[in-house]
Amino acid sequence: MLNKIILIGRLTRDPELKYTPNGVAVCSFTLAVDRKYNKNDTDFIDIVVWRGLAENCANYLHKGRLTAVDGRLQIRTYETQEGQKRKVAEVIADDVRFLEKPGTGSSTAKASSDIEYVVKEDSQEDWTQVGRELNNNDIDVMEADEDDEIPF
User: Fold this and answer.
1) Does some domain include residue 146?
2) The domain containing residue 39 runs over which residues?
3) Residue 19's domain is classified under what CATH number?
4) Which of 25, 34, 61, 62 has its C-alpha lying 20 to 30 A from 99's C-alpha?
5) What's the CA dihedral at 151, 72, 19, 98 to 10 degrees?
6) 58 touches 98 (CB < 8 A)
7) Which of the 8 DSSP states describes residue 132?
8) Structure confidence by residue, pLDDT tens digits, 26-55
9) In 80-142, at which residue ranges do the beta strands (DSSP E only) sit?
10) pLDDT band at 108, cuts 50/70/90?
């Protein structure tokens, strides 16, 4: 059996970070994913991320950022205060990829200034480049100062 979902979309709101009573981080957000053949149809999919990845998502993702999520579908049921049974479908993320530089999303939400990105002048900013395989010539490596901290 197989339960695998891969999504690419934009966050509809800033991620919400909470902690369980045992201190485990859990982050939730919603992705707006356009349908392949009809761009006017959009699905809004709830995403749940756990532990260290949850904290990274809360710190570095913001409303409007293009994001890829790899995970599994989970259907759970719960009961409302009125006693009605409800079902919720959500994606439990195993991997989350930040697909844009900070500050390039459709929102003016805060961007992380701790990460510095360098884009080569001859690179294209259109959608034809999404999903293509990169090689070492596509990336500029910058030397970090000894005082720089890794953001994750």
Assistant:
1) no
2) 5-138
3) 2.40.50.140
4) 25
5) 20
6) no
7) P
8) 999 999 999 888 778 899 999 999 999 999
9) 85-98
10) very low
Kindly report the CA angle at 32 between 29 and 36, in degrees rounded to 5?
145
- Measured distance CA(81)–CA(54) in Å, rounded: 28
Is residue 97 domain-resident? yes
Distances (CA, A) of 107 to 29, 116, 141: 15, 19, 28
pLDDT (0 to 100) of residue 129: 55
Residues 6+ apart with CB under 8 A from 41: 34, 35
122 lies in some domain: yes
Looking up tokens 């890794």 gives 150
Q: Which amino acid is at 12?
A: T
Q: For 25, what's the count of Cα atoms within 13 Å in the CB-facing half-sphere?
A: 14
Counting the structural domains of the chain, the total is: 1
Share of the chain above pLDDT 70, in %: 66
Is residue 119 in some structural domain? yes
**Which residues, 6 or more positions from 18, have their beta carbon under 8 angstroms from its beta carbon?**
25, 26, 27, 28
As given in the structure block, the two tokens for residue 141 are 């490596």
